[in-house]
Design goal:
Blueprint (H helix, E strand, L loop, with lengths): L1 H14 L2 H4 L3 H66 L2 H12 L4 H15 L6 E7 L5 E4 L13 H8 L7 E2 L16 E9 L6 E10 L18 E6 L4 E4 L15 H5 L5 E7 L5 E8 L4 E8 H4 L1 H47 L14 H49 L8 H32 L7 E3 L1 H11 L1 H6 L3 E3 L9 E3 L1 H17 L5 E8 L3 E8 L20 H5 L8 H11 L4 E5 L7 E8 L2
Parallel strand pairs: 12-14
Antiparallel strand pairs: 1-2, 1-5, 3-4, 4-5, 6-7, 6-10, 8-9, 9-10, 11-13, 14-15, 15-17, 16-17
Length: about 625
């Protein structure tokens, strides 16, 4: 349907006066963009009343659920931690022995005093949230405590907890409800909760008492935060099943522990463990809330006022509706005509560009107008024609360079080596020095020619090589062996921590050789001392080669240009080294031809040095 509309609009556009059809592309695109904008606005207006409020409610609910779940995870970790801590204390051999002795000798206060000291020095000091540690016998009489005033007093355990405490087995715990500072059972100066664990005889495993770890409520008041859209507006509470507030996670205006929270989510626990919906909260405000009822009868509630959650859509509704109605009818026809005038030529240009990309340089665009698009079509045809000439010249250059440059250079190098080997008689020392310099310069010239040839082949798409199964480690060792004289000359160390059983790869061995040699040669060139480390490793999908040197390093400003042709870094330019600036371009081209990646970074541990890493996919 959309294609038919565009064709219809294009037909109408062709029947318009020429001066109108030659409007600038900017004018035509403006109409198209305005049409898109108005359609979006109109769709927003329509969908708002049907979908947006529901969508926002779901988004808010998800945010609330995320907050609840994150705090449940936090509370679970606290309960697990405090329970493990209490079991650890109750399993302490010293505590069990002393409890056994005190039970057997209730009149000997020495054991109680020594156990008190152990609890204070070696146990309570381990956790700042532990306010008291109390040990009671099976009749709930305090045998020892960090608060000496509690010794020989009777601890009253709430009836709903007492049955569970009495049934505890070795290694089990019970976590109490929260006790406020007004409930002076053990700790009178702050809100707290208690974790119970049984103490058993080390020989008979018979229960001889109970250890009570009293934790400050501050252990529960630092929950993990969840990054959600409405994080700053969500109010999260922890309440027990008696509708009493345990803690308020709201950092701006927290409620006091002990406040009555009588809301729908608490009542819902009798029906289901999860609640999500709209209700009136404890302050009489309509909120959207989410709640979870925990196994220990605590409830986590996260809520946000509906006025806050839905304020933005209500504010923009009227403006969106009036704006879309006003301009929709006026702009729609102009936008359709403009779109057709731009889209059809661009589609034709896209088809021709695809043919050119596939190698058909004879393709041409049919020019349809005299506007900017028409000029673009003319320039595109001119560009393709020049590309044909460049492609032909490049092919000629590759042929000429291969035969006319490499051949005489190779012959010169061969003859020069005969001179150096004294095949024509021994040379004077000065002549030996000069021939060596000539020899080095010819080698550099051959390297430059080879780099230029590689770049030319890469750009012309003629880099195809015979592929074979290659051992990456063998190529690394071969390159390092060939470059050993350069390592020795510059007093550099070479380390090869290569991975054992490294998979072989399927690619051009010559290309891999050139990649590794270029990288290691650069490391040698820009290093004056230290170690050059070449490592190989593998992941499930790649072989990874890393070259690490301790050289001059790379400034951050140069990293983005390192893989471009003829670029040499600022430090490299200042150093006494020579280079064509083509090596890394060749490296990147070959590696990406394998569908691999290559990166350069500074040394991960030193202030100078460079790390070059490339990957070879295992496929």
């Amino acid at each position: 349907m959309l294609t038919w509309l565009f064709k219809l609009a294009h037909t109408i556009n062709q029947r318009l006066p020429k001066w109108l059809r030659n409007f600038s592309v900017g004018t035509k695109l403006l109409g198209a963009f305005m049409l898109i904008a108005i359609i979006i606005i109109a769709l927003m207006t329509i969908s708002y009343t049907v979908l947006i409020k529901d969508h926002l409610a779901k988004k808010i609910t998800n945010d609330l659920h995320s907050v609840v779940e994150s705090n449940i995870d936090y509370l679970d970790s606290i309960i697990t931690y405090t329970s493990a801590r209490t079991v650890d204390f109750a399993s302490d051999g010293l505590i069990r022995n002393y409890t056994d002795r005190i039970t057997a000798n209730p009149d000997d206060i020495q054991y109680s005093q020594e156990l008190n000291t152990h609890l204070i020095v070696n146990k309570q000091s381990l956790d700042r949230n532990i306010t008291d540690i109390v040990i009671i016998d099976n009749d709930n009489i305090v045998l020892a405590a960090t608060n000496a005033n509690l010794i020989n007093t009777n601890i009253t355990i709430p009836s709903d907890e007492k049955v569970n405490v009495e049934q505890l087995q070795y290694g089990e715990t019970i976590v109490s409800d929260v006790h406020t500072s007004t409930e002076c059972d053990i700790t009178c100066n702050q809100d707290h909760f208690i974790v119970y664990a049984p103490i058993t005889n080390t020989q008979t495993n018979e229960r001889i008492g109970t250890l009570l770890n009293v934790f400050s409520l501050s252990a529960l008041t630092n929950p993990t935060t969840t990054n959600t859209t409405y994080s700053n507006d969500i109010h999260t509470l922890l309440v027990d099943d008696n509708e009493i507030l345990i803690t308020d996670f709201n950092k701006n205006d927290p409620l006091t522990t002990g406040t009555t929270i009588d809301t729908k989510p608490i009542h819902w626990c009798a029906i289901d463990k999860v609640y999500t919906g709209t209700y009136i909260n404890h302050a009489g405000v309509e909120v959207i809330g989410s709640a979870r009822c925990l196994d220990n009868n605590w409830i986590i509630i996260s809520e946000i006022p509906t006025t806050t959650a839905l304020a933005l859509p209500n504010n923009i509704l009227l403006w969106v509706f009036i704006t879309s109605l006003t301009i929709l009818v006026v702009i729609i026809m102009i936008a359709l005509l403009s779109t057709a005038g731009v889209l059809v030529p661009l589609q034709q240009l896209e088809k021709i560009m695809y043919k050119v990309k596939e190698g058909d340089l004879s393709a041409r665009v049919t020019i349809q107008s005299q506007d900017e698009l028409g000029q673009l079509q003319k320039d595109f045809n001119t560009m393709i024609k020049k590309l044909e000439l460049i492609d032909e010249e490049k092919s000629n250059f590759v042929s000429i360079a291969s035969h006319q440059l490499n051949t005489p250079l190779g012959a010169m190098l061969w003859q020069l080596e005969l001179l150096q080997n004294n095949d024509y008689g021994k040379l004077p020392k000065e002549a030996q020095r000069v021939t060596k310099e000539i020899h080095d310069n010819i080698l550099r010239l051959i390297d430059l020619v080879n780099d230029l040839l590689n770049v030319s082949r890469i750009e012309s798409g003629t880099t195809t090589e015979n592929l074979r199964i290659v051992s990456v480690n063998d190529v690394i060792q071969k390159v390092c062996k060939e470059l050993k004289p350069l390592f020795t000359k510059k007093n550099l160390h070479n380390e090869l921590p290569l991975a054992k059983n490294l998979p072989e790869v399927h690619l051009s061995e010559r290309h891999l050789y050139e990649v590794i040699k270029n990288i290691i040669s650069n490391a040698i060139k820009y290093s004056t001392n230290g170690t050059i480390t070449v490592t190989s490793s593998q992941t499930d999908s790649n072989v990874i080669v890393t070259v690490l040197d301790e050289g001059i390093g790379i400034p951050e400003k140069d990293k983005a240009k390192l893989f471009t042709k003829f670029f040499r870094g600022s430090k490299a330019m200042l150093s006494d080294t020579e280079g064509s600036g083509l090596g890394l371009f060749v490296v990147k081209s070959y590696v990406e031809d394998w569908d691999g990646t290559v990166s350069i970074n500074n040394h991960p541990m030193l202030e100078h040095g460079t790390e070059v890493r490339f990957t070879i996919p295992l496929h």
